């Protein structure tokens, strides 16, 4: 259909673009939309074909980069010039003239409506052009072609590239609607776009047409309304020094105003508009960004689109608070669907320790939203005892989350302090605690045996992790799913009762040393850096052992001339390919294979079973090895740095002991410090062991599931074996029963959602069910000028060049560069050995990156608000890991 009326159900995203489809929907729903019609995308495509424009487009956008503003402008100018020279067919002109005649030749607004705009996740607002107060057939036809060409503005080309939308998938419809000669116009958000609060509507309004407002030329009036009651929460009158008005002969003009003291909308109008917004939101089911105009006392709706800036919320009943599981783990990337389910299986398995039996998909504590996992904390915080315990614990793990939660726990909606301590809960906790106390005592008596027993338990469990499958493809899938669920749900019940009695005394000893250090020095800086020095160069930490093993691999390559030559002149992807084919020089092949046999199941985001491992793609390992080979200063060698850390720890113990001897009861305090420090160094390295066990187990299960993925790909059910990770457990169970669904289509939608979330740069730390989202890291409200603050987690001062890394895959760090990243998991830590310092947006004293940074002795500051945005590649900074300060030097 060439012309689509606003009343037509054929106005879809594909035929009418986002704006056109929404206007048609609003019209059919009975809202006051100005009369008009849509020139369909079919006409655009026909125009492009008839004028041979596709060749011009492809040539212009080839090899463009989204961040090259000048090149984008040149490409846009070339394409738009070609559009301007194009001609409509006689048939198209006639059809458009007829449709315009049906509007009785009134002035119209001609608006672009792209197929990749006004989507639930991408607004594309302002990317294409709008032409107002168009009068006459000739001007209309010219405006239509100009709209078509605006699909190729520099900003639209760049926006599509940044959001990975293929140019060939984009097409443009044109909306032609009767011009509303508005006395007042503006925008209405049915949720507060700044705070996310769902209960507030926000209105910006100005006199005249809305063009001056959306283009930023005018400071509008700003009204905030409590949507449910209609109460006006706040009013701020803008200067409104200019307005946009229609000219008698067509087009618009900007005129000076003196309207700062005049309120654009009466209180009645404000409440009416907020109520209208609620009705539109009800139609769509999600918060809306609405363009409106008032003329002759009547409100008209000019557009409605989803508020794309709001982070999605988990489902909830009542007032609920969640914090980011990823922020604690140092993984801010989205999870695959099966990765999310696996995490929930592990979590619900842990509940069995306390006698709680619940299905992974029925529990409401660890839940997905925005393709990530969130931990519900409000129920715990409501409990008087839980609130005290949790506040202390959370501040220790991720200080910025703790700070946010402390501001929320007193809100009346939470009902803080009203929870009851049930007898059954007390009984379960008491039983668990008594068991732990006995094991704590045994650990303190013989820490070497406690640690060795725990390590042996892990190895025994892994040695039994295998499965023999039989039957047809679907039966084998069912068996592998049972294997996965069984192993994942058994992880916590097996590990935690044995892990806590090993790590717990170590953490308690660290607190004791901190207390004794504070008492001896008379100072209090939270965690004393001197006490933390005792944790440097800890033995038996599986993460640092991995990094040192990779350094040994680099040393073996350096010691072989042929291997060194290949690594010096070959890029990392080709090295990975040669390794996979067994074609590296023998010394390199053998050394890397030995490393991979132990650590090949690791990888970025490794707690997500859907993430590739180093053995799937060894390119990151090759890049890190090449980085290590650049370290030529013997004093900067990672093994030397680690040994230096061990010496620093020994010196710290002696300093603590010497200070204690000078105190009252010094002989006892000295003995206590030496007793504590020895056990601390034996026990605290266990911090990373459960994660390593889980990753190894996930690696085993992942390999089994990939076998089913291969079988389903060969059978034509999947496009690729990894597709298996983009279905949920329940769906895979249906597939194992050979139930027929359009699996490829379901998986394609999941990939789209996953890729969309990968592009999200800032992830909230805390979500609230009323819509509020909290992103703020440490220093968000206090930082000024060139001084940036965070949480100090590894002492020392270093100056260096910033290297911002969002994904370590594809990154080679030059020795001495300061690594700035969103967060880290163990797969990032090989980069640490070349880094001069570490800055992360999330993290706390005991998260992976902080622990490893201390062991290597590199200064580190974590929890830094928007570090990857505020700091830029190539900047020189001074990083103070003792004070938690970052000074930008240039």
Short description:
The chain has 890 residues and is of the alpha+beta class.
Which characteristics define this entry?
six-stranded antiparallel sheet, alpha+beta, 890 residues, globular, eight-stranded mixed sheet
Read across the widest sheet, the strand sequence of neighbours is 19-26-25-21-22-23-24-20
Q: Low-confidence stretches at least 5 residues in length (pLDDT < 50)?
A: 118-124, 522-527
Helix/strand-derived category reads: alpha+beta
**Proportion in helices:** 40-55%
How many strand elements?
26
Gyration radius, in Å: 31 Å
What is the general shape? globular
Q: Provide mean pLDDT, rounded.
A: 90
Which range does the strand content fall in? 5-15%
**How many alpha or pi helices?**
30
Largest sheet: 8 strands, mixed
Distance between the ends: 59 Å
Any overview of this molecule?
The chain has 30 helices and 26 strands. It is of the alpha+beta class and 890 residues long. The strands form five sheets. It has an eight-stranded mixed sheet, covered by helices on one side. Strands 9-8-7-6-12-13 form a six-stranded antiparallel sheet. The chain is globular and about 95 Å long. The model is unreliable at 118-124 and 522-527 (pLDDT under 50).
Which secondary structure elements does this structure contain, and how are they paired or packed?
Elements: E1 3-5, H1 13-28, E2 36-39, H2 41-50, H3 53-61, H4 69-84, H5 90-101, E3 108-114, E4 130-134, H6 137-149, H7 154-162, E5 172-178, E6 184-189, E7 200-207, H8 211-214, E8 221-226, E9 232-236, E10 242-246, E11 252-256, H9 267-284, E12 288-295, E13 298-306, E14 321-324, H10 325-329, H11 337-351, E15 366-369, E16 372-376, H12 378-382, H13 384-397, H14 399-406, H15 423-445, H16 447-463, H17 473-521, H18 529-533, H19 542-558, H20 561-569, H21 572-580, H22 586-599, H23 619-628, H24 638-661, H25 666-683, H26 689-714, H27 729-736, H28 743-758, E17 766-768, E18 773-774, E19 787-789, E20 791-794, E21 797-804, E22 818-821, E23 837-840, H29 848-856, E24 860-862, H30 867-870, E25 876-880, E26 885-888
Parallel strand pairs: 21-22, 22-23, 23-24
Antiparallel strand pairs: 1-2, 2-5, 3-4, 3-5, 6-7, 6-12, 7-8, 8-9, 10-11, 12-13, 14-16, 14-17, 15-16, 17-18, 19-26, 20-24, 21-25, 25-26
């Amino acid at each position: 259909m060439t012309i689509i009326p606003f009343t037509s159900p054929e106005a879809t995203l594909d035929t009418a673009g986002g704006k056109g489809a929404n206007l048609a929907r609003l019209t059919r729903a009975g809202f006051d939309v100005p009369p008009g019609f849509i020139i369909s995308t079919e006409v655009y495509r026909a125009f492009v074909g008839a004028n041979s424009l596709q060749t011009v487009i492809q040539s212009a956008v080839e090899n463009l980069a989204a961040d090259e503003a000048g090149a984008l402008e040149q490409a846009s100018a070339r394409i738009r010039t070609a559009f301007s020279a194009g001609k409509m067919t006689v048939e198209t002109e006639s059809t458009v003239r007829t449709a315009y005649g049906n509007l009785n030749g009134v002035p119209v607004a001609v608006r672009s409506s792209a197929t990749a705009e006004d989507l639930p996740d991408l607004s594309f607002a302002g990317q294409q052009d709008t032409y107002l107060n168009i009068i006459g057939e000739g001007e209309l036809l010219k405006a239509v072609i100009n709209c078509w060409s605006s699909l190729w503005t520099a900003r639209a080309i760049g926006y599509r590239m940044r959001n990975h939308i293929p140019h060939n998938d984009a097409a443009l419809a044109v909306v032609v609607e009767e011009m509303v000669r508005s006395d007042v116009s503006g925008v209405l958000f049915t949720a507060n776009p700044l705070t996310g609060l769902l209960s507030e509507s926000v209105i910006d309004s100005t006199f005249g047409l809305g063009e001056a407002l959306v283009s930023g030329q005018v400071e509008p009036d700003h009204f905030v309304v409590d949507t449910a009651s209609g109460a006006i929460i706040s009013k701020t009158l803008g200067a409104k020094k200019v307005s946009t008005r229609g000219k008698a002969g067509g087009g618009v003009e900007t005129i000076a105003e003196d309207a700062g003291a005049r309120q654009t909308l009466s209180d009645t109008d404000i409440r009416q508009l907020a109520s209208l917004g609620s009705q539109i939101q009800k139609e769509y089911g999600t918060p809306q960004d609405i363009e409106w105009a008032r003329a002759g006392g009547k409100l008209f709706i000019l557009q409605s689109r989803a508020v794309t800036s709001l982070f999605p919320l988990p489902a909830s009943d009542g007032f609920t608070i969640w914090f980011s599981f990823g922020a604690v783990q140092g993984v801010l990337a989205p999870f695959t669907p099966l990765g999310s389910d696996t995490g929930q299986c592990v979590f619900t398995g842990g509940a069995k320790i306390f006698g709680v039996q619940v299905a992974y998909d029925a529990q409401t504590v660890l839940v997905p939203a925005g393709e990530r996992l969130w931990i519900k904390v409000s129920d715990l915080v409501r409990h008087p005892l839980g609130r005290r315990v949790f506040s202390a614990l959370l501040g220790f793990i991720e200080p910025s989350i703790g700070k946010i939660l402390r501001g929320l726990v007193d809100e009346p909606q939470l009902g803080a302090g009203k929870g009851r301590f049930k007898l059954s809960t007390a009984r379960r906790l008491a039983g668990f605690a008594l068991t732990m106390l006995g094991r704590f005592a045994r650990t303190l008596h013989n820490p070497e045996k406690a640690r060795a027993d725990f390590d042996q338990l892990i190895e025994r469990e892994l040695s039994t992790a295998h499965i023999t499958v039989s039957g047809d493809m679907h039966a084998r899938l069912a068996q592998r799913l049972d294997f996965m669920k069984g192993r994942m749900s058994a992880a916590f019940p097996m590990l935690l009762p044995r892990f806590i009695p090993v790590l717990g005394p170590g953490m308690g000893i660290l607190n004791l040393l901190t207390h004794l250090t504070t008492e001896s020095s008379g100072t209090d800086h939270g965690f004393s850096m001197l006490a933390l020095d005792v944790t440097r160069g800890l033995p038996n930490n599986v993460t640092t052992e991995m990094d040192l093993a990779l350094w040994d691999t680099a040393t073996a390559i350096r010691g072989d001339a042929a291997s060194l030559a290949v690594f010096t002149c070959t890029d990392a992807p080709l090295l990975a390919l040669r390794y996979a084919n067994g074609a590296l020089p023998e010394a390199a092949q053998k050394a890397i294979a030995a490393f991979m046999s132990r650590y090949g199941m690791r990888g970025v985001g490794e707690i997500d079973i859907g993430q590739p491992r180093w053995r799937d793609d060894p390119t990151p390992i090759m890049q890190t090895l090449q980085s290590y080979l650049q370290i030529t200063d013997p004093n900067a060698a990672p093994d030397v740095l680690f040994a230096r850390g061990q010496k620093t720890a020994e010196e710290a113990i002696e300093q603590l002991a010497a200070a204690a001897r000078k105190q009252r009861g010094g002989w006892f305090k000295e003995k206590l410090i030496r007793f504590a420090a020895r056990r601390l160094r034996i026990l605290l390295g266990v911090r990373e062991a459960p994660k390593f066990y889980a990753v190894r187990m996930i690696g085993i299960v992942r390999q089994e599931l990939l076998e089913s993925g291969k079988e389903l790909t060969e059978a034509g059910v999947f496009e690729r074996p990894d597709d298996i990770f983009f279905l949920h457990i329940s769906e895979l169970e249906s597939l194992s029963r050979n139930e027929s669904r359009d699996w490829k289509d379901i998986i394609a939608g999941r990939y789209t959602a996953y890729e969309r979330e990968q592009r999200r740069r800032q992830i909230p730390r805390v979500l609230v069910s009323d819509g509020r989202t909290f992103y703020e890291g440490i220093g968000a409200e206090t930082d000024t000028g060139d001084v940036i603050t965070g949480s100090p987690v590894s002492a020392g001062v270093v100056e260096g060049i910033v290297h911002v890394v969002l994904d370590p895959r594809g990154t080679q760090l030059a020795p001495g560069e300061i690594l700035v990243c969103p967060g880290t998991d163990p797969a990032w830590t090989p980069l640490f050995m070349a880094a001069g310092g570490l800055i992360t947006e999330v993290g706390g004293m005991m998260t992976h990156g902080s622990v490893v940074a201390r062991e290597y002795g590199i200064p580190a500051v974590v929890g830094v608000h928007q570090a990857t945005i505020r700091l830029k590649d190539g900047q020189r900074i001074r990083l103070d890991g003792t004070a938690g300060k970052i000074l930008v030097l240039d």
